[in-house]
Amino acid sequence: MSxxxxxxxxxxxxxxxxxxxxxxxxxxxAVHAAFALGDLACEVxxxxxxxxxxxxxxxxxxxxxxxxxAPGGIHRLHRxxxxxGEAFRGWVDSAVGRHTVVLxxxxxxxxxxxxxxxxxxxxxxxxxxxPRDIYPLDADDDPTGATGLVEAGQxxxxxxxxxxxxxxxxxxxxxxxxNLTAMNAYYRATETKPDGAVGGEWPELGYLPPTPPQSGxxxxxxxxxxxxxxxxxxxxxxxxxxxxxxxxxxRRFIQMLGAAYTALDLPPVExxxxxxxxxxxxxxxAASPKATIRHxxxxxxxxxxxxxxxxxxxxxxxIAPMHDFAHWRRQPIALQADFEAGLEKFFDPELGSIRRYxxxxxxxxxxxxxxSWYLYHPLMNxxxxxxxxxxxxxxxxxxxxxxxxxxxxxxxxxxxIQYKVTDFSVITEIAGADGRGQTDVxxxxxxxxxxxxxxxxxxxxxxxxxxxxxxxxxxxxxLNYQANLTAWGAAACMRLWRITxxxxxxxxxxxxxxxxxxxxxxxxxxxxxAVHYRNFLGVTCLQDAPYMAVYECFDxxxxxxxxxxxxxxELEPAARMLVSEYCKYALDRxxxxxxxxxxxxxxxxxxxxxxIDRALSFPLEDLYVDGQKAGQVGQEIxxxxxxxxxxxxxxHTVHSAPFWLFCDHFIMTSERTGExxxxxxxxxxxxxxxxxxxxxxxxxxxxxxxxxxAGGDVIRARKTMAxxxxxxxxxxxxxxxxxxxxxx
Length: 744
What we know:
By secondary structure, the protein is of the alpha+beta class. Helix content is 29%, strand content 26%.
């Protein structure tokens, strides 16, 4: 959604826009309360059928936010004494029932207004329609006279957000964020879902509450009489200027999204034993005949449970995490060596590159066809292994890198969806959903080039990375094609900044982050089967995908670890917070991709690839924000590296101590400061919390622990069990852990 509208360009106006225009022109609104929001003036005003809050910048226009819609008119408005932190509290009585309205403000940094509206129906209430709620206004309070640009709107069931700026008059930038979590009771009662609910056409924008489809026999799913339900929880963040440049716009979006995020009541997270899950995964990969197949005397992994042909991306998506886990536990994994031994068969000496498929792939596959990202993702994992000292991986990487460059240059760093590797003829140029190719492959390509630069020191590769990032400039919020590729693009920008000290690359990383978080679901759904799992801060795998996918989840997690470790104090605090929070919630959310973590009845009956075996510790590909049955795409063997990645990043051994540490934020530094003391530093959001757990090793008893902040504040345990003790600690800063001698 990126639509400019002017007075002459507006194609039409709804009755509700015309009604507001008429009431404002006639000065017919009755003002009941006034308050300031920083340098903005706010008024709570009553119209014929709506209660409004007007937010104005004197001489520079404003916004009209509908608080309550009362068909038939408002009977009476009752003002109540605001509670601490509130600017207004009251209720509106009408024919439909009682709307309770609460306004909260925060103008210390960015200007933030939160409007929460609850409805108590006076009868079982069918809701055939409710209008959108926010209108830009010009300096004369005319919603048809303001012009501006909508940069981003809600995609599918992701966050209910709208990012726009009002240019004429120069009101500034606005992030409208609807806290969809608060409306779960409404969605369940009406059997609706907020798919694309936040958007609109200028000047009528904001939240369109979902309603049942109307027909000759309309549904009868009513809001219950006398039961209070939240129908809107809008958070509006306002900046006083309009950023014309892409990087500044993305940075402001991240800042404003961070301001909205900190207003939310965040869902709790739970500890999950990813080490045990990783061990079970390795055992199942090694033992199950559904996991692997033999070709040319070598062992290869299936992409899905007992289904699909082996391909190079799948093998390396398992080998690289296995390498990490073997190094972490200081014990080799025999299956890793088996998989590595067969990699050479993917290399085509005539092409000068690894291919997607083995030479004997079935006739039902086009052996020459490759998705653009499928060429570079295996190279990325080969690069990881090569940098770690794996000579077989380095040989394959260095023999394939020139072909990767040749492809990039052929497509001028703007890749199609799919092409033939033999002659670069395009099979599928664009995706039907957005009319674009794989827009973020350049970010993955840049990361691969930076790996080559690290391995060889050749400036040629550094230049290729720079050219690829430059070619993606101007995409704004249309950059995302596949979530993990976008995350690696952010990491590549940050690494380029570290190498070159050119600040443009750090700022360009915010463009990748803005596109990534635009596609995130910053709400917790309780619709249908979604009550059985977590989706908060999940990201749809593709720009138009209806589901979250485990592979993109853990691969983005790995990319963001690199992003944060390459960053420094110059990193925008909101970016640091959102990236850290994504990783924190990934450790909880990803557990529910495993079929044994879900009720059997909520697993898909019809499966696109292979079948689901709940006894195998391989994750499902797909979970749905709207609670559809899980695993419709299949059980993902190529996503089985998830447990290994999470285990090696979140669990930490402490030399000669009888315990491990778990932390759902990356431990950026650690230092042994005494025989029984360790100092660690976390670098997450300044206002956020992290979970730190002390986990006994084997059957040994845990010693008595003390956890204090660098300022000396003692942190009490939140949960104490024989096998572990959990603490909630500040997500940003230094912590000191000390312990007594181990008890027998």
